[in-house]
Amino acid sequence: MSKTPLGRGLGALLGGSKPPSAKPQPPKSVEEPVSYPPLGSETLAKNTDLSPRHLPVDDIRPCPFQPRREFEASALEELSDSIREQGLIQPLVVRRKSDHWELIAGERRWRASQKAGLKEVPIIIREADDRQVLELALIENLQRENLNPIEEALGYRQLIQQFQLKQEEAAIKVGKSRAAIANALRLLKLPDDIQRDLGTGKLSVGHAKVLLGLSKEEEQVQVGRRIIKDALSVRQTEVLVSEIHQKHKNKQLSASHPVTRNNEKDVHIAHMEQQLVEKFKTKVRIKYQEGKGALEIRFFSDEELENVLSDLGVSAD
To answer: Is the pTM of this model over 0.90?
Structure first.
């Protein structure tokens, strides 16, 4: 399935390519890098220069807004080997700071270049404020799909909090739906242990969504460990969480209405509730008294509401 490009695209945010000149010039040799103005140059501070240049690799610092927290060692080593053999083909994108150059895009390539022993790397100079840098870093990583779910969620939260954006505004910036942003942010409500397992891939986002249905952190951690230990699927996890909900419900019923021969109707209601929980994959409560009452179906996100409506044969449009 083809993927929709994110937002305006990295090329658009970087400012686009220069229009070809009437008399194209031959490309510069890699052995003869273009010289660049000193850090004190006022000309550079006023203009964005998209022409390829070279900088000493040690003069570049990582971006503090980089949403990516983990760089897989084996993948970094493979990239380093490739750069050692072929050189760094795609330039890094940097911006000028007071006494150094700061990465905007390409930290993985920068790290691999250091491991490969490169003294200089090709760069493109881009003027950008902090908001643009964060947007560019997010979009670059999201387009390449190399952020884990927690890194992605942390990136969204940083974008929202640092620049006082609403979820809808952040969604437009990165080319996602508001629901996708909201669902990603919900992952940060999970305990640290669960977030760590999400980041390493031991748990999937599907598992995480089911765990969010548990209100107690200790239960979320226990079920998370059970998922990993027994290699439970998302569907099996849903059944397990449903059973936990039912146990809680049975305890409440036992405490308030002990089951006797005179209140067998409570047992039937509990059984019906359990069947509805299994059907809708969410909390369900039946209030019944002498032929009257109410049916309560809980949902915790727009996606869950859509699923309930779909099961009921009701269109959300």
So the answer is: no
Cα pseudo-dihedral 224, 228, 229, 233, rounded to 10: 100
Active site annotation includes 127: no
Arithmetic mean of pLDDT, 58-77: 77
Whether the CB-CB separation of 148 and 198 falls below 8 Å is answered with yes
What is the CB-side half-sphere exposure of residue 29 using CA atoms within 13 A? 2
Instruction: Read off the pLDDT of residues 155-178 as tens digits, 9 standing for 90 and up.
Output: 888 888 877 889 999 888 888 899
- Give the active site residue among 107, 152, 238, 273: 107
Task: Could you please state the CATH topology (level 3) that the domain comprising 33-132 is classified under.
Answer: 3.90.1530
Q: Which one, of 154, 164, 160, 176, lies nearest residue 8 by Cα? A: 176
3-class SS of residue 105: strand
Residue with tokens 């990582």: 62
What are the start-end ranges of the H helices in the chain? 10-13, 42-46, 73-86, 107-116, 130-144, 149-162, 167-174, 178-186, 192-200, 205-211, 217-230, 234-256, 264-280, 302-311
Please count the other Cβ atoms lying within 10 Å of the Cβ belonging to residue 90: 10
Helix axes 107-116, 73-86, angle to 10 degrees: 70
Residue 247 pLDDT exceeds 80: yes
Strand partners, 107: none
Find out whether 44 and 53 touch, Cβ atoms under 8 Å.
Answer: no
The gap from C-alpha 240 to its chain's centroid, in whole angstroms, comes to: 26
Closest to 303 in 3D by CA, of 316, 284, 286: 316
The pair of structure tokens assigned to 298 is 């809980």
Least trusted range by pLDDT, from 99-113, 130-144, 184-198: 130-144
Q: What is the Cβ-side half-sphere exposure of residue 306, based on CA atoms within 13 angstroms?
A: 6
pLDDT tens digits, one per residue of 261-316: 445 557 888 888 888 888 877 888 888 877 788 888 888 887 888 887 888 877 76
Amino acid present at 32:
E
**Tokens in use for 259?**
């089951």
Q: Are 106 and 32 in contact (CB under 8 A)?
A: no
